[in-house]
Amino acid sequence: MRLRIRPASPLSGMISVPGDKSISHRALLFAALADGVSNLQGWLPAADCEATLRCVRALGIEVERHAEDHLIVHGSGLKGLRPASGPLDCGGSGTTMRLLMGILAAFPFPSVLVGNPQLSRRPMERVARPLRQMGADVITTEGHAPVYVRGGALRGIRYELPVASAQVKSAVLLAGLYADRPTAVIEPAPSRDHTERLLRAMGASVEWDGHTITIHPAEQLLPISLRIPGDPSSAAFLIAAALLIPGSAVQIHGVLLNPTRLGWVEAWQAMGAPIQVIPEGEAGGEPVGRLHATAATHLQAIEIAGAMVPRMIDEFPIFAVIATQAEGVTQVRDAAELRVKESDRIAALAMELRRMGARIEEHPDGFTIYGPTPLRGTVVQSHGDHRLAMALAVAGLIAQGETIVEDAACIADSFPGFVEVMRALGAEMEIE
Ligand code: S3P
Question: Final residue of a domain: which of 96, 127, 156?
Fold first, then answer.
């Protein structure tokens, strides 16, 4: 599938975005381990979360699907998973594989986790190492999937994460639910804290202060009834389009406003972007509200490094597009993690944005963009990366002439309906 994009007239409208991907994975996995029936509405029916659903069912959990985004999960308790009859297929989803490794580390039966070629290139030893320290038997294939896990009695540990990764942190915390004593994870910088918040909402004892998270062994998890808020990482593409297209005004309601996910809002506001954040309530221990953006009259370059990086880790592709329109030199450092996402996002961004006329330099741990530069429409590649595909589609809206994003089906990995939402706001995008 390819996307054909024409320069846009102003975007306007009030819309919602599909459920948060990180919370959709966690809500389903934790509900599977709860004592009783959980009700999940607004669950994200995207390819990555469908992989989690497939795995949960393969592990013996009954899940009723009342609508694409409405699941009833019959949890079988913390010890209730049953061995799958074959390998657990995590598709392209790193969250599925890494969180499941943490859970399966507590089960005495052997499991094998496999992924597609893209996921099989991503690092898994970072999860295997702490789980081995806790007492599980975990074997990776030269650091990658397929991964073999055979769990058993686990020891609580104190583990310093070498990288700020919510997926690794979550795997250790989940194993910690089953350990013989409290487990502490120390982060180099705070990463998204959905695991901590949701486990606490389900009755587990989890404390966190700044860099250290401590989890206590649990007897049970309580089932939960949850409306999953909209994904701010999906909202970021719509907000960016509104900022970049003169005359636009876009409002998105029901969005997750967790501060560990909103680094991009702060960064763009600091660049001069008129974005408003309007808190409205709470769901499952998470703040929820509205985002409002109008076109920016002037954007200034910015430097991003250190603790800000994990707070906007998924938004660098669209941030880079914005930076091409900002005045001055935008610098990103301390972001080597971008090289092990769905694609090598530093190399892929530099390659594709250059094709469109951007001035971008690649570094081992980031990039530099010299702006502003007009973008020109051309044929660009998604590299099989959903966030790159959507970022390039937004770039196409402000480029001169027509842009074609090749291999764009991957958008459904996180944001099914992206093109329809864009069109509802007034963008000219066609699927071919
Ligand atoms: C995620 C954590 C982040 C993020 C990914 C989802 C999660 O990955 O990039 O899209 O749900 O925990 P890392 O934890 O590897 O940084």
Answer: 156
